[in-house]
Amino acid sequence: DNLLEWPFAYRVTFSLLDQSDPSLSKPQHITETFHPDPNWKNFQKPGASRSSLDESTLGFGYPKFISHEDIKKRNYVRDNAIFIKASVEIPQKIL
């Protein structure tokens, strides 16, 4: 956390990976990208002063990322496993 600039404002991408055989069909990954709002509490620097009941510890998500119906249409679940790729675009100056 000490290497990052706060509030957190880097572009984040989540992808649900289609596990279909690529030789049979082109994978159709589900992808969502967002730019955090630096004014939102969840993207402020974490600290020991937060309690477990603080609204800023509730997390962030996509309530409509993919429906249960759509997740069954392709091989997003295979052998009871899913793969979610998370990417964060970090500025060159940090690397």
Automatic annotation (TrEMBL):
Record's keyword terms, sorted: Receptor
Protein name, UniProt field: TNF receptor-associated factor 4
InterPro entries: MATH/TRAF_dom, TRAF-like, TRAF1-6_MATH_dom
A Gene Ontology molecular function term of the record: tumor necrosis factor receptor binding
Pfam families, alphabetized: TRAF-mep_MATH
Classification via Gene3D superfamilies: Apoptosis, Tumor Necrosis Factor Receptor Associated Protein 2, Chain A
Biological processes, Gene Ontology terms: regulation of canonical NF-kappaB signal transduction
Ranges for domain MATH: 1-88
